[in-house]
């Protein structure tokens, strides 16, 4: 507030860009309108009267409300940015987010992109309910979604880094018999089905010592129980120093990574994203170490 400068001449000329007589006249008009003296001249300059102090507190609030109203009007005058919500199977964002942002590069100034990670079933629920536009996930069967496969991920074996099988370049699935086996379950049902089918084709029966659906818990159980687990290779990104991985020997099983979306979603950004899936896959492949 300009009265705090103490000098009407200084406030008029330097801050309000008017003359001191003009400012004095405006103050008198304001005092006439209020019906009380707001300022008093003293040896130290101009000070507020008791009425002026009461007035100024309300004036500050009013000015703040005016500023807020101006900002709200400016925001309302600008078209709202479209939101585009991306979901990732936990851990996959490290692999695929750069590629997703690459294919959205032309839209980033006009779209607010949000990113989240979760279980595949939770992602499917989010896409089905419209909370997510697209998700990198498993092709969950119980949802009215469309899926485009973007990758076939090899399954690997995780084990403690000092496990006897860590000395092998590749692990025969038969060598897992008798080891404490950690099975996928719960929300990882698509993965569990793929692993069970692989074990059946291999003629191997592994009795689970533990069941889990969370990659972080997988790591904890491998390290603490000295167990082994068959899991998609992307989880290697989450391994602590105490856990290592080895590929499976023979006909390596894979699991599909899909982009899931709701066919009735009319988002123009989603349409652009889906039209560039081939580019997304190519960009991802080019970033992989050779």
Automatic annotation (TrEMBL):
Coiled coil: none annotated. PROSITE patterns: HTH_LYSR (PS50931). It comes from the Bacteria. This is LysR family transcriptional regulator. It holds the Pfam family LysR_substrate. The keyword DNA-binding applies. Residues 1-23 are annotated as: Disordered. Residues 1-49 form the HTH lysR-type domain. InterPro entries: LysR_HTH_N, LysR_subst-bd, WH-like_DNA-bd_sf, WH_DNA-bd_sf.
């Amino acid at each position: 507030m300009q009265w705090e400068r103490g000098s009407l001449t200084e406030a008029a000329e330097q801050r309000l860009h008017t003359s001191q007589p003009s400012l004095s006249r405006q103050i008198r008009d304001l005092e006439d309108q209020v019906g009380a003296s707001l300022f008093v001249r003293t040896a130290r300059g101009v000070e507020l009267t008791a009425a002026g102090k009461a007035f100024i507190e309300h004036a500050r609030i009013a000015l703040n409300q005016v500023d807020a109203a101006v900002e709200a009007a400016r925001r309302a005058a600008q078209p709202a940015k479209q939101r585009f919500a991306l979901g990732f199977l936990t851990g996959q964002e490290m692999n695929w987010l750069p590629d997703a942002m690459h294919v959205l590069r032309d839209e980033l100034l006009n779209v607010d992109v949000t990113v989240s990670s979760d279980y595949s079933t939770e992602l499917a629920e989010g896409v089905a309910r419209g909370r997510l536009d697209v998700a990198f996930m498993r092709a969950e069967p119980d949802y009215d979604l469309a899926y485009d496969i973007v990758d076939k991920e090899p399954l690997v074996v995780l084990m403690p880094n000092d496990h006897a099988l860590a000395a092998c370049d590749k692990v025969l699935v038969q060598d897992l018999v008798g080891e404490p086996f950690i099975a996928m379950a719960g929300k990882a049902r698509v993965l569990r089905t793929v692993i069970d089918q692989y074990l059946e084709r291999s003629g191997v029966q592994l009795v689970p010592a533990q069941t889990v659906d969370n990659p972080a818990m997988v790591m904890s159980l491998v390290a603490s129980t000295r167990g082994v687990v068959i899991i998609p290779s992307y989880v290697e990104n989450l391994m602590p120093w105490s856990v290592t991985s080895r590929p499976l020997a023979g006909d390596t099983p894979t699991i599909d990574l899909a982009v899931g979306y709701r066919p009735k979603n009319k988002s123009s950004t989603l349409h652009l994203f889906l039209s560039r899936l081939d580019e997304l896959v190519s960009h991802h492949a080019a970033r992989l170490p050779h």
